[in-house]
Design brief:
With about 425 residues, the chain is an alpha/beta fold. Helix content is about 45%, strand content about 15%. The protein is built from 15 helices and 12 strands. The strands form 3 sheets. A 7-stranded mixed beta sheet has the order 2-8-7-6-5-3-4, sandwiched between helices. A 3-stranded antiparallel beta sheet has the order 9-12-11. The radius of gyration is 27 Å and the shape is globular. The relative contact order is 0.14. The model has no long low-confidence stretch (mean pLDDT about 90).
Length: about 425
């Protein structure tokens, strides 16, 4: 009898499970739309005048020529003139292939990467290590530096790549108001006994405001606080400042006072990739610890070879650097005198704050229709309320171009 009862119980249990399955299958669920949320986000961006598209190539159909480039970071004009160096490149680097096929640690195709690093080491007097981009460099290096008992202190306006590196590393970090040495000092004083090292991260030239970092004050602060590691991103300074174009650290004779210098090759150098300048011990450490270096297919040998050629040209372009500085001052001065527009810029990056995304887009279209290629810079690149036109000047511009540009801005306003 006990066996029969057990059998009946099992039968009822199986029947109940079957009934449950049927009931679940009969429930009518709403149509699944897992992608809808992304569409809604795009709609919100459109409504907020923050929807972005990739710009088209110029010249467009119906136009005889492209408008003057005030968008890109081709500060010395090398990118615009790249064709004139093509034959020299092919003659000097005929074996530079288009792919490295693996990361630096797994590929034998490192000849031109090694030559480029050696060249940079000769220029800076310290070891160099290549990365695929400035973003790869900042994210990877910061992640690698984030060992226990380390605090990062970053200027409020450092690039998104540095902020992403801090967040991804889950490191302790604080941000200080832009260029405020007093607030930086306060943070150091409050936490100096709590950590073994402090990595202070700044940019030499800030990409949206066009102003410069107080590097001399930072170098002095580093001597006052021996636990400080000074990290300077020279992305918008390499090629543009310094006797040989090595950046603001060179111009201010501070190359030996900065622990880590990051430079990019995709701006004034008219190439692609990035590099870090640091002590040999740090280079060895980064090779063994930086995930963006270890797990990324390396730049092509051809790209590394092209960078060698471009840097060779940059070294001798002191006249272009001087001209760029002169027309940048001319632009800022004319904007203040003729249009009563002030700007924080002291460099080739000159922002014009509009304060409204829609209005900034309209002005960019107006300038483009009058021969100057610009785009509106909007949130999240800059905070809401500080939307702007960012004029990225280059050494191919003339004083006549500057005068005409200021006049067109004045007419629009």
């Amino acid at each position: 009898m006990a066996a029969k009862k057990s059998s009946v119980t099992k039968s009822k249990s199986a029947s109940a499970k079957s009934s449950t399955v049927r009931t679940r299958n009969q429930i009518k669920r709403p149509a699944a739309e897992p992608l809808k949320v992304y569409s809604q986000i795009l709609d919100h961006l459109r409504d907020d005048n923050r929807f972005r598209i990739i710009p088209e190539d110029f010249p467009r159909p119906g136009r005889k020529s492209a408008p003057i480039d005030l968008l890109s970071n081709d500060y010395l004009g090398l990118g615009a003139e790249a064709g004139k160096y093509k034959e020299e490149f092919l003659q000097r680097f005929p074996d530079a292939t288009m792919t490295s096929s693996a990361s630096r640690l797994l590929s034998r195709r490192n000849k031109y990467h090694n030559r480029l690093e050696s060249f940079l080491e000769e220029l800076y007097g310290r070891p160099a290590l290549l990365f695929n981009s400035g973003y790869h460099a900042n994210v990877g290096i910061i992640q690698a530096l984030a060992v226990p008992s380390t605090m990062f202190i970053a200027d409020k306006l450092v690039h998104a790549s540095a902020i992403d590196g801090l967040r991804l590393s889950e490191a302790d970090f604080k941000r200080f108001p832009h260029n405020s040495i007093s607030r930086l000092r306060r943070i150091l004083n409050e936490h100096y006994d709590d950590y073994e090292r402090f990595v202070v991260i700044v940019e030499s030239i800030y990409s949206m405001d066009g102003d410069i970092s107080p590097l001399r004050d930072l170098a002095a602060l580093k001597k006052e606080y021996p636990k400080v590691i000074l990290y300077v991103d020279e992305a918008h300074s390499f090629g543009v400042r310094g006797e040989r174009g090595l950046g603001l650290c060179e111009e201010l004779s501070l190359l030996d006072d900065v622990d880590i210098i990051v430079g990019t090759l995709g701006k004034a150098a008219a190439s692609a990739g990035a590099f870090v300048i640091c002590p040999q011990m740090m280079k060895d450490y980064l090779i063994n610890s930086t995930r963006s270096f270890i797990f990324s297919t390396a730049l092509s040998p051809a790209q590394a070879a092209w960078s060698i050629l471009m840097i060779e040209k940059i070294i001798s372009m002191s006249d272009r650097r001087k001209h760029l500085k002169d027309i940048s001052r001319e632009f800022v001065g004319q904007m203040e005198r003729r249009n009563n527009i002030e700007t924080p810029s002291t460099t080739q990056i000159v922002p014009m704050i509009i304060g409204d995304a829609g209005e900034a887009m309209l002005m960019a279209d107006y300038l483009r229709s009058n021969g100057f290629d610009t785009l509106a810079i909007r949130k999240p690149t800059v905070p809401a309320g500080s939307e702007r036109i960012r004029f990225s000047l280059n050494a191919l511009l003339t004083k006549k171009d500057i005068t005409r540009l200021v006049g067109i801005i004045g007419k629009y306003r």
